[in-house]
Amino acid sequence: MASSILGADLDKLWPLIGDGASDSATFDNALELLVAGGYSLSHAVMMMIPEAWNNNPLMDAPRRAFYEYHAALMEPWDGPAAIAFTDGKQIGATLDRNGLRPARYVVTSDDLVIMGSEDGVLPVPDDNVVQKWRLQPGKMLLIDLEEGRIIGDEELKAQLASAHPYQEWLDRIQIHLEDLPEEIGAMSPDADTLLHRQQAFGYTQEDIKQFLNPMGLQGDDPIGSMGRDTPIAVLSDRPKLLFDYFMQCFAQVTNPPIDPIREELVMSLVSLIGPRPNLLELEGVNARHRLEVRQPILSNLDLERIRQIENHVDNTFRAITLSITYPAGDGAEGMEAALERLFREAEDAVKGDYNILILSDRDVNADHIPIPSLLATAGVHHHLIREGLRTSAGLVVETGEARRVHDFCLLAGFGAEAINPYLAFDTLSDQAPRLGAEVEKLHANYIKALDKGILKVISKMGISTYQSYCGAQIFDAVGLSDDLLARYFTGTKCAVGGIGLAEIAKEAARRHAIAYQGVLQFSGALDIGGDLAFRLRGETHAWTPETIGLLQHAARSGDQNRYRAYAKKMNDQDRKLRNIRALFDLKFSDNPVPLEEVEPASEIVKRFATGAMSFGSISWEAHTTLAIAMNRIGGRSNSGEGGEDEKRFKPLANGDNMVSRIKQVASGRFGVTTEYLVNATDLQIKMAQGAKPGEGGQLPGHKVDAWIRRVRRSTPVSD
Q1: What is the pLDDT of residue 693?
Q2: What is the pLDDT of residues 607-633, one digit of tens each?
Q3: Which of 44, 235, 340, 701 qualifies as a cystine partner to 39, CB 3.0-4.6 A?
Q4: Is 22 helix (H, G, I), strand (E, B) or coil?
Q5: Which of helix, strand or coil describes residue 428?
Q6: 596-600 long-range contacts, CB within 8 A, separation 24+
Q7: pLDDT of residue 564
Q8: Which residues have a Cβ under 8 Å from the Cβ of 670 and sit 6 or more positions away?
Q9: Which residues pair with 246 in a beta bridge?
Q10: Does residue 561 sit in helix, strand or coil?
């Protein structure tokens, strides 16, 4: 970064944004830098909080060019925001691209402008009101105190968009990936090579059957039911991928989630690969070229275009492939040294004028163990940041490890600007004859499914664009050591510590041994998996045929001994450390509380409540049985977001009641009627649909039968 205005004084400003500052403080620092660097106040705010331009067919060409040019300078300051700003000469306000913050204003005849979250913040006689209106998504209200007038959004942005020939600048520096000449991709591996690679990267039969095949055939991220009864990764006896040790954060009330389908206009998967231009270059004279991709999932041919880009753009871009594997002879102990070697190679490459780094594990074989792609990506990303080189190069990841949406979100969150899942493509190509589908169609649908899945995930954090999500690290770790996180995932929080690099390396080496040394009895086939459903030789589950049978027998017979057998089986899993609570030991007081001072059980159970499960996600019998049981003991069952059949509002002949005393409302959806609301003791109102890690009330379309559809007031066969 350099500035003709600030000159050498720019060095006095480091660090521009300190650790631990609030969102408002970091925004203020960045805005102050832009204004000090020569941008006008309104220009700087438009750079930081741009309108949704990418999918807006109604935006005029000059304004689109303005936003597209500045997109390479700075990613959107994403998330809901209503910003007021002033430099003493102008005062203004703008709203984010989603318009999720209320901002209404009144203009009076005596030259007052009053803006607040609602009308009526201050009393104004109706006779004095000249205008009442609201800030719309991405729009700006600007008052120029020197000119003594309000400058409208259209006038202001037309003036700024025409101040420079932005489209000419774009035509000179912009390169679209699809415009590069086609290259020859890698050949598909033979059956043995494919199997060995799949085993080395931990593929299971479940991955192919439940994820890759449906994504390739339908172009959608598969929908799964709620609940997880398997151990978290750090407690599992099976070798887990590093992806499984991270959990996506999700939006809270101050940062509401977005509906990526209905708000498609504001969503964007555009990614810019390569070095960042100089943020404080005002005239576009020395602007760096920019490689733009429409979405971040690269086909094998797209990756080859990037790998060979130097041959087609007059040395503007230079790509280098860095291996993220290391000699198998070094064993698990060799991973740390391999990472340090990788970091040195990345640093030397950037200093040697390579500006696209491709991190690749394609050379995995019997002699080379792959470093987990997430560990390599995050490690290189943070190493380059520490060396002050991150904005000088783009990161592309060529990996056989990533296959689920969560995997790609993690790679993006830790710095990957584009990702090529070559092994997923090879697997789909191998499956094509069995699925009766064309290879090209399977690949295209898989990319489509990943794109939709990424949009769904980033929207849960109120983020609209891939550029804003890339490198944002919106994840919490579970079961990783502080030393590991500080070195390779700097800034990531972890409430539950755990394994370090040594254990991660051992799991990678174990997968490699399974693939190439035949250490398992069934080495000629993929592991069955068993994460989604109980399988022999699969992942451990709390709910097994044995525990389900014990519970059913106990419930049907009313035999307390059978219930104790069931409880013992479930509690034994705690002692085997299948969940976090099993790590705790209860301390018993030497002086117990007298029993007469303890509430009777009949009063304690009145504070019990069931989880919120929608009718449709569980059966009528299960839903009504829970309601009847809770009403009998004085507790409360929860309707979930799936509505409630009106026949449940009337007591049964035997005096039982099937009504759920807790009712959920989410954006007025799913069977919310007056009758539904009045038959509730508690209302749980969600500030936005999907304001939690799951979808909230979403069902696969084939499960929405006529009954469920009537209760939900929904349309036939809709997810």
Answers
A1: 42
A2: 999 988 888 888 999 999 999 999 999
A3: 44
A4: coil
A5: helix
A6: none
A7: 95
A8: 614, 641, 642, 643, 697, 712, 713, 714
A9: 477
A10: helix
CB 676 within 8 A of CB 643: yes
605 contacts 635 by C-beta, under 8 angstroms: yes
Q: CA-based angle 525:528:532, to the nearest 5?
A: 155
Q: Are 16 and 388 in contact (CB under 8 A)?
A: no
Look at the alpha carbons of 52, 54, 56, 58 in this order and tell me if their dihedral is positive or negative.
positive
Report how far residue 441's alpha carbon sits from residue 437's, in angstroms, rounded to the nearest whole number. Answer: 7
pLDDT tens digits, one per residue of 397-445: 999 999 999 999 999 999 999 999 999 999 999 999 999 999 999 999 9
Residue among 509, 526, 531 nearest 204 (CA): 526
Contact 70, 47 (CB under 8 A): yes
* pLDDT band with cut points at 50, 70 and 90 for residue 4: confident
Give phi and psi for 169, each to the nearest 5.
Answer: -60, -45
DSSP letters for 324-367: -EEEGGG-GGGHHHHHHHHHHHHHHHHHTT--EEEEE-TT-BTT
Tokens 């003036």 label which residue? 159
Q: Which residues pair with residue 395 across a beta bridge?
A: 357
Q: What is the pLDDT of residues 281-335, one digit of tens each?
A: 888 766 678 899 999 999 999 999 999 998 888 778 999 999 999 999 999 999 9
Around Cβ 141, how many Cβ atoms within 10 Å? 24
- Which pair of tokens denotes residue 279? 């943020």
User: pTM of the predicted model, to two decimals?
Assistant: 0.91
Which residues does 478 contact at the CB level (< 8 Å), separation at least 6? 232, 233, 234, 245, 246, 247, 494, 495, 496, 498
As a whole number of angstroms, the longest Cα–Cα distance in the chain is 87
Q: Across the strands, what pairs with 325?
A: 370
**How high is the mean pLDDT of the chain?**
89
